[in-house]
Amino acid sequence: xxxxxxxxxxxxxxxxxxxxxxxxxxxxxxxxxxxxxxxxxxxxxxxxxxxxxxxxxxxxxxxxxxxxxxxxxxxxxxxxxxxxxxxxxxxxxxxxxxxxxxxxxxxxxxxxxxxxxxxxxxxxxxxxxxxxxxxxxxxxxxxxxxxxxxxxxxxxxxxxxxxxxxxxxxxxxxxxxxxxxxxxxxxxxxxxxxxxxxxxxxxxxxxxxxxxxxxxxxxxxxxxxxxxxxxxxxxxxxxxxxxxxxxxxxxxxxxxxxxxxxxxxxxxxxxxxxxxxxxxxxxxxxxxxxxxxxxxxxxxxxxxxxxxxxxxxxxxxxxxxxxxxxxxxxxxxxxxxxxxxxxxxxxxxxxxxxxxxxxxxxxxxxxxxxxxxxxxxxxxxxx
Length: 383
Fold this sequence. Notes:
By secondary structure, the protein is an alpha/beta fold. It has 16 helices and 13 strands. It folds into 2 domains: 2-174 and 365-382, Rossmann fold (3-Layer(aba) Sandwich), CATH 3.40.50; 187-352, Glycogen Phosphorylase B (Rossmann fold). It has helices at residues 14-30, 47-53, 66-78, 83-91, 120-123, 130-146, 155-164, 187-196, 216-227, 249-258, 276-282, 298-306, 316-321, 334-341, 344-351, 355-382; strands at 2-7, 36-42, 58-62, 96-99, 112-115, 149-152, 172-174, 204-206, 233-237, 264-268, 287-289, 310-313, 327-329. It has a 7-stranded parallel beta sheet with strand order 3-2-1-4-5-6-7, with helices on both faces. Helix 8 crosses helix 11 (276-282). The model has no long low-confidence stretch (mean pLDDT 89).
Protein backbone atom coordinates (compact mmCIF):
# COMPACT_ATOMS: atom_id res chain seq x y z
CA UNK A 1 0.00 0.00 0.00
CA UNK A 2 1.54 3.30 -1.14
CA UNK A 3 0.51 6.05 1.28
CA UNK A 4 1.06 9.75 0.55
CA UNK A 5 2.17 12.05 3.38
CA UNK A 6 2.89 15.79 3.19
CA UNK A 7 5.70 17.72 4.85
CA UNK A 8 5.21 21.46 5.00
CA UNK A 9 7.52 24.25 6.04
CA UNK A 10 7.12 23.80 9.80
CA UNK A 11 6.54 27.48 10.61
CA UNK A 12 5.40 27.86 14.22
CA UNK A 13 4.13 24.29 14.64
CA UNK A 14 7.31 22.24 15.12
CA UNK A 15 5.23 19.43 16.63
CA UNK A 16 3.66 18.73 13.22
CA UNK A 17 6.88 17.70 11.49
CA UNK A 18 7.98 15.73 14.58
CA UNK A 19 4.67 13.86 14.52
CA UNK A 20 5.08 12.90 10.85
CA UNK A 21 8.68 11.83 11.48
CA UNK A 22 7.72 9.53 14.35
CA UNK A 23 4.73 8.15 12.45
CA UNK A 24 6.93 7.25 9.48
CA UNK A 25 9.52 5.73 11.83
CA UNK A 26 6.81 3.60 13.48
CA UNK A 27 5.55 2.46 10.07
CA UNK A 28 9.06 1.45 9.00
CA UNK A 29 9.72 -0.36 12.29
CA UNK A 30 6.44 -2.22 12.67
CA UNK A 31 4.37 -2.52 9.47
CA UNK A 32 6.84 -1.53 6.76
CA UNK A 33 6.11 -4.65 4.72
CA UNK A 34 2.50 -3.48 4.28
CA UNK A 35 2.96 0.29 3.82
CA UNK A 36 5.33 2.19 1.50
CA UNK A 37 5.36 5.88 2.56
CA UNK A 38 5.72 8.55 -0.13
CA UNK A 39 6.50 12.01 1.30
CA UNK A 40 5.47 15.05 -0.76
CA UNK A 41 7.73 17.89 0.41
CA UNK A 42 6.75 21.55 0.17
CA UNK A 43 8.95 24.37 -1.01
CA UNK A 44 10.62 26.00 1.98
CA UNK A 45 11.39 22.76 3.83
CA UNK A 46 15.09 22.82 4.68
CA UNK A 47 17.59 20.36 3.19
CA UNK A 48 18.38 19.18 6.75
CA UNK A 49 14.72 18.31 7.27
CA UNK A 50 14.54 16.46 3.97
CA UNK A 51 17.70 14.50 4.83
CA UNK A 52 16.13 13.52 8.16
CA UNK A 53 13.11 12.02 6.39
CA UNK A 54 14.86 10.53 3.37
CA UNK A 55 15.59 7.18 5.05
CA UNK A 56 11.93 6.75 5.98
CA UNK A 57 10.06 7.54 2.78
CA UNK A 58 10.31 8.14 -0.94
CA UNK A 59 10.72 11.92 -1.28
CA UNK A 60 8.73 13.86 -3.89
CA UNK A 61 9.21 17.66 -4.23
CA UNK A 62 5.94 19.58 -4.37
CA UNK A 63 5.20 23.17 -5.38
CA UNK A 64 3.02 24.86 -2.77
CA UNK A 65 2.88 28.54 -3.63
CA UNK A 66 -0.18 30.19 -2.12
CA UNK A 67 -1.80 30.57 -5.56
CA UNK A 68 -1.43 26.81 -6.21
CA UNK A 69 -3.05 25.87 -2.89
CA UNK A 70 -5.81 28.40 -3.48
CA UNK A 71 -6.44 26.97 -6.97
CA UNK A 72 -6.70 23.45 -5.53
CA UNK A 73 -9.20 24.63 -2.91
CA UNK A 74 -11.27 26.40 -5.57
CA UNK A 75 -11.35 23.18 -7.61
CA UNK A 76 -12.32 21.14 -4.54
CA UNK A 77 -15.19 23.53 -3.83
CA UNK A 78 -16.42 23.98 -7.39
CA UNK A 79 -16.07 20.48 -8.86
CA UNK A 80 -15.75 18.61 -5.53
CA UNK A 81 -12.30 17.35 -6.58
CA UNK A 82 -8.83 18.89 -6.44
CA UNK A 83 -7.75 17.41 -9.78
CA UNK A 84 -4.25 18.89 -9.63
CA UNK A 85 -3.51 16.99 -6.41
CA UNK A 86 -5.18 13.89 -7.79
CA UNK A 87 -2.93 13.78 -10.87
CA UNK A 88 0.14 14.39 -8.70
CA UNK A 89 -0.74 11.44 -6.46
CA UNK A 90 -1.89 9.25 -9.35
CA UNK A 91 1.47 9.73 -11.07
CA UNK A 92 3.11 8.12 -8.04
CA UNK A 93 0.56 5.27 -7.82
CA UNK A 94 -0.76 6.40 -4.45
CA UNK A 95 -3.35 4.10 -2.84
CA UNK A 96 -4.17 6.32 0.17
CA UNK A 97 -3.62 9.97 1.11
CA UNK A 98 -2.88 10.89 4.73
CA UNK A 99 -4.73 14.18 4.93
CA UNK A 100 -3.60 17.06 7.18
CA UNK A 101 -5.11 20.55 6.83
CA UNK A 102 -5.92 19.97 3.16
CA UNK A 103 -9.27 19.38 1.49
CA UNK A 104 -9.50 17.49 -1.79
CA UNK A 105 -13.28 17.42 -2.31
CA UNK A 106 -15.96 14.80 -1.82
CA UNK A 107 -15.42 13.32 -5.32
CA UNK A 108 -11.67 12.85 -4.88
CA UNK A 109 -10.99 9.39 -6.37
CA UNK A 110 -8.21 8.31 -3.99
CA UNK A 111 -9.18 7.18 -0.45
CA UNK A 112 -8.18 9.62 2.31
CA UNK A 113 -7.32 9.21 5.98
CA UNK A 114 -7.81 12.58 7.66
CA UNK A 115 -5.94 13.37 10.88
CA UNK A 116 -7.58 15.83 13.30
CA UNK A 117 -4.84 16.60 15.87
CA UNK A 118 -7.07 18.15 18.55
CA UNK A 119 -10.21 20.20 19.12
CA UNK A 120 -8.62 23.11 20.93
CA UNK A 121 -10.52 25.74 18.95
CA UNK A 122 -13.79 24.28 20.23
CA UNK A 123 -12.70 24.21 23.88
CA UNK A 124 -10.62 27.39 23.95
CA UNK A 125 -12.15 29.67 21.28
CA UNK A 126 -10.72 32.80 22.94
CA UNK A 127 -7.23 31.59 21.99
CA UNK A 128 -8.11 32.25 18.32
CA UNK A 129 -8.89 35.36 16.36
CA UNK A 130 -12.26 35.13 14.64
CA UNK A 131 -10.82 34.61 11.16
CA UNK A 132 -8.38 31.93 12.36
CA UNK A 133 -11.15 30.14 14.26
CA UNK A 134 -13.44 30.13 11.22
CA UNK A 135 -10.62 28.90 8.95
CA UNK A 136 -9.83 26.03 11.31
CA UNK A 137 -13.49 25.14 11.83
CA UNK A 138 -14.19 25.13 8.09
CA UNK A 139 -11.23 22.82 7.52
CA UNK A 140 -12.38 20.43 10.23
CA UNK A 141 -15.93 20.36 8.89
CA UNK A 142 -14.80 19.64 5.34
CA UNK A 143 -12.41 16.88 6.46
CA UNK A 144 -15.10 15.38 8.69
CA UNK A 145 -17.43 15.20 5.68
CA UNK A 146 -15.13 13.99 2.93
CA UNK A 147 -12.40 11.86 4.57
CA UNK A 148 -12.99 8.14 4.17
CA UNK A 149 -11.64 7.62 7.68
CA UNK A 150 -10.84 10.11 10.48
CA UNK A 151 -7.84 9.50 12.73
CA UNK A 152 -7.53 10.94 16.24
CA UNK A 153 -4.91 10.34 18.91
CA UNK A 154 -7.02 9.67 22.00
CA UNK A 155 -10.38 8.48 23.26
CA UNK A 156 -10.87 12.00 24.61
CA UNK A 157 -10.43 13.38 21.08
CA UNK A 158 -12.79 10.74 19.69
CA UNK A 159 -15.49 11.88 22.12
CA UNK A 160 -14.93 15.48 21.01
CA UNK A 161 -15.11 14.48 17.35
CA UNK A 162 -18.43 12.70 17.86
CA UNK A 163 -19.80 15.65 19.82
CA UNK A 164 -18.79 18.38 17.37
CA UNK A 165 -18.97 16.45 14.07
CA UNK A 166 -21.58 13.67 14.38
CA UNK A 167 -21.13 12.76 10.69
CA UNK A 168 -17.87 11.00 11.68
CA UNK A 169 -19.64 8.47 13.91
CA UNK A 170 -18.87 5.40 11.80
CA UNK A 171 -15.41 6.37 10.59
CA UNK A 172 -13.17 7.28 13.54
CA UNK A 173 -9.94 5.42 14.32
CA UNK A 174 -8.09 6.08 17.59
CA UNK A 175 -4.32 5.86 17.00
CA UNK A 176 -2.42 6.93 20.14
CA UNK A 177 0.89 8.55 19.30
CA UNK A 178 4.06 7.02 20.69
CA UNK A 179 7.84 7.45 20.68
CA UNK A 180 10.42 4.76 20.07
CA UNK A 181 12.46 3.83 23.12
CA UNK A 182 15.72 5.73 23.03
CA UNK A 183 19.16 4.61 24.10
CA UNK A 184 19.95 5.36 27.74
CA UNK A 185 21.65 8.77 27.86
CA UNK A 186 25.10 8.63 29.46
CA UNK A 187 26.04 10.90 32.33
CA UNK A 188 28.92 12.26 30.23
CA UNK A 189 26.48 13.37 27.53
CA UNK A 190 24.31 15.11 30.14
CA UNK A 191 27.32 16.89 31.65
CA UNK A 192 28.51 18.02 28.20
CA UNK A 193 25.08 19.39 27.26
CA UNK A 194 24.68 21.22 30.57
CA UNK A 195 28.04 22.84 29.88
CA UNK A 196 26.92 23.74 26.34
CA UNK A 197 23.88 25.60 27.66
CA UNK A 198 25.55 26.80 30.87
CA UNK A 199 23.05 24.98 33.09
CA UNK A 200 24.15 24.78 36.71
CA UNK A 201 22.50 22.59 39.32
CA UNK A 202 19.24 20.64 39.23
CA UNK A 203 16.36 21.67 37.00
CA UNK A 204 12.92 20.72 35.76
CA UNK A 205 12.38 20.63 31.99
CA UNK A 206 9.54 22.27 30.03
CA UNK A 207 9.90 21.67 26.24
CA UNK A 208 6.77 23.41 24.89
CA UNK A 209 6.55 26.17 22.29
CA UNK A 210 5.39 29.52 23.63
CA UNK A 211 1.74 29.28 22.62
CA UNK A 212 -0.88 30.63 25.01
CA UNK A 213 -2.60 27.30 25.65
CA UNK A 214 0.74 25.76 26.71
CA UNK A 215 0.24 27.78 29.90
CA UNK A 216 3.84 28.73 30.79
CA UNK A 217 2.46 31.55 32.94
CA UNK A 218 1.30 29.09 35.63
CA UNK A 219 4.89 27.85 35.99
CA UNK A 220 6.23 31.38 36.46
CA UNK A 221 3.57 32.06 39.10
CA UNK A 222 4.47 28.81 40.87
CA UNK A 223 8.14 29.86 40.92
CA UNK A 224 7.18 33.21 42.39
CA UNK A 225 5.35 31.41 45.20
CA UNK A 226 8.30 29.05 45.79
CA UNK A 227 10.69 32.02 46.05
CA UNK A 228 8.89 33.14 49.22
CA UNK A 229 9.93 29.88 50.90
CA UNK A 230 13.62 30.49 50.22
CA UNK A 231 13.96 27.25 48.27
CA UNK A 232 15.90 27.12 45.00
CA UNK A 233 14.08 25.79 41.91
CA UNK A 234 15.19 26.09 38.29
CA UNK A 235 13.12 25.56 35.15
CA UNK A 236 14.78 25.07 31.76
CA UNK A 237 12.38 25.62 28.85
CA UNK A 238 12.80 25.07 25.11
CA UNK A 239 10.61 25.46 22.04
CA UNK A 240 9.53 27.76 19.26
CA UNK A 241 9.31 31.33 20.63
CA UNK A 242 6.61 32.43 18.15
CA UNK A 243 2.87 32.67 18.90
CA UNK A 244 1.15 33.49 15.60
CA UNK A 245 -2.19 34.13 17.31
CA UNK A 246 -0.66 36.80 19.60
CA UNK A 247 2.85 37.89 18.51
CA UNK A 248 3.43 39.99 21.66
CA UNK A 249 2.60 37.18 24.08
CA UNK A 250 6.06 35.48 24.18
CA UNK A 251 7.94 38.69 25.00
CA UNK A 252 5.47 39.57 27.78
CA UNK A 253 5.80 36.06 29.22
CA UNK A 254 9.60 36.14 29.21
CA UNK A 255 9.62 39.63 30.72
CA UNK A 256 7.64 38.29 33.67
CA UNK A 257 10.17 35.45 34.03
CA UNK A 258 13.07 37.90 34.13
CA UNK A 259 11.40 39.66 37.08
CA UNK A 260 11.43 36.53 39.28
CA UNK A 261 13.37 36.67 42.58
CA UNK A 262 16.99 35.38 42.41
CA UNK A 263 16.26 32.13 44.28
CA UNK A 264 14.20 30.77 41.38
CA UNK A 265 14.88 30.71 37.66
CA UNK A 266 12.96 30.27 34.41
CA UNK A 267 15.41 30.02 31.50
CA UNK A 268 14.10 29.82 27.96
CA UNK A 269 16.65 28.40 25.49
CA UNK A 270 14.41 28.76 22.42
CA UNK A 271 14.63 26.22 19.61
CA UNK A 272 17.41 23.71 20.20
CA UNK A 273 18.53 20.79 18.00
CA UNK A 274 16.07 17.89 18.22
CA UNK A 275 18.83 15.53 19.39
CA UNK A 276 19.47 17.75 22.42
CA UNK A 277 15.92 17.30 23.74
CA UNK A 278 16.30 13.73 25.12
CA UNK A 279 19.60 14.68 26.75
CA UNK A 280 18.10 17.75 28.42
CA UNK A 281 15.16 15.60 29.46
CA UNK A 282 17.39 12.87 30.92
CA UNK A 283 19.36 15.38 32.93
CA UNK A 284 16.26 16.89 34.53
CA UNK A 285 14.45 16.13 37.75
CA UNK A 286 11.26 15.72 35.75
CA UNK A 287 9.23 16.98 32.81
CA UNK A 288 6.50 19.59 33.27
CA UNK A 289 3.58 19.99 30.89
CA UNK A 290 1.14 22.61 32.25
CA UNK A 291 -0.92 22.77 29.05
CA UNK A 292 -4.57 23.80 29.09
CA UNK A 293 -5.25 21.55 26.12
CA UNK A 294 -3.54 18.76 24.16
CA UNK A 295 -4.45 16.26 21.49
CA UNK A 296 -1.76 13.82 22.67
CA UNK A 297 1.43 15.33 24.06
CA UNK A 298 4.62 14.50 22.14
CA UNK A 299 6.82 15.75 24.97
CA UNK A 300 5.05 13.47 27.45
CA UNK A 301 5.65 10.49 25.14
CA UNK A 302 9.32 11.39 24.85
CA UNK A 303 9.63 11.53 28.63
CA UNK A 304 7.86 8.17 28.99
CA UNK A 305 10.30 6.64 26.49
CA UNK A 306 13.19 7.82 28.69
CA UNK A 307 11.56 6.95 32.01
CA UNK A 308 11.46 10.59 33.17
CA UNK A 309 9.11 11.62 36.03
CA UNK A 310 6.05 13.54 34.83
CA UNK A 311 4.36 16.63 36.31
CA UNK A 312 1.22 17.28 34.28
CA UNK A 313 -1.88 19.43 34.19
CA UNK A 314 -4.88 17.30 35.11
CA UNK A 315 -6.62 17.61 31.74
CA UNK A 316 -8.41 14.42 30.57
CA UNK A 317 -5.98 13.55 27.77
CA UNK A 318 -2.97 13.69 30.13
CA UNK A 319 -4.68 11.23 32.46
CA UNK A 320 -5.46 9.00 29.49
CA UNK A 321 -1.86 9.24 28.31
CA UNK A 322 -0.39 8.60 31.78
CA UNK A 323 -2.85 6.36 33.64
CA UNK A 324 -0.26 5.48 36.30
CA UNK A 325 2.61 7.30 37.95
CA UNK A 326 2.07 10.91 36.89
CA UNK A 327 1.90 13.87 39.27
CA UNK A 328 -1.13 15.99 38.34
CA UNK A 329 -2.14 19.56 39.19
CA UNK A 330 -4.94 21.98 38.35
CA UNK A 331 -3.60 24.13 35.45
CA UNK A 332 -5.33 27.17 36.94
CA UNK A 333 -3.71 26.73 40.38
CA UNK A 334 -0.02 27.80 40.67
CA UNK A 335 0.14 26.75 44.32
CA UNK A 336 -0.78 23.17 43.39
CA UNK A 337 2.16 23.05 40.97
CA UNK A 338 4.48 24.73 43.49
CA UNK A 339 3.70 22.06 46.10
CA UNK A 340 4.66 19.27 43.67
CA UNK A 341 7.93 20.96 42.68
CA UNK A 342 9.14 21.13 46.28
CA UNK A 343 7.45 18.07 47.79
CA UNK A 344 9.32 15.18 49.38
CA UNK A 345 6.68 12.89 47.86
CA UNK A 346 7.80 13.84 44.35
CA UNK A 347 11.50 13.34 45.05
CA UNK A 348 10.84 9.98 46.70
CA UNK A 349 8.91 8.98 43.57
CA UNK A 350 12.01 9.75 41.49
CA UNK A 351 14.06 7.34 43.63
CA UNK A 352 11.46 4.59 43.21
CA UNK A 353 10.92 5.03 39.47
CA UNK A 354 11.06 1.69 37.67
CA UNK A 355 12.70 2.67 34.37
CA UNK A 356 12.84 -0.91 33.06
CA UNK A 357 9.07 -1.35 33.42
CA UNK A 358 8.39 2.02 31.79
CA UNK A 359 10.61 1.17 28.83
CA UNK A 360 9.02 -2.28 28.38
CA UNK A 361 5.58 -0.67 28.26
CA UNK A 362 6.87 1.89 25.78
CA UNK A 363 7.99 -0.89 23.41
CA UNK A 364 4.41 -2.20 23.44
CA UNK A 365 2.95 1.27 22.80
CA UNK A 366 5.39 1.83 19.93
CA UNK A 367 4.37 -1.42 18.24
CA UNK A 368 0.69 -0.53 18.64
CA UNK A 369 1.26 2.91 17.09
CA UNK A 370 2.33 1.36 13.80
CA UNK A 371 -0.24 -1.44 13.89
CA UNK A 372 -3.15 0.88 14.72
CA UNK A 373 -2.16 3.19 11.87
CA UNK A 374 -2.21 0.21 9.48
CA UNK A 375 -5.71 -0.71 10.68
CA UNK A 376 -6.91 2.88 10.14
CA UNK A 377 -5.37 2.91 6.65
CA UNK A 378 -7.09 -0.35 5.74
CA UNK A 379 -10.44 0.93 7.00
CA UNK A 380 -10.06 4.03 4.80
CA UNK A 381 -9.34 1.99 1.69
CA UNK A 382 -12.17 -0.49 2.33
CA UNK A 383 -14.72 2.24 3.13
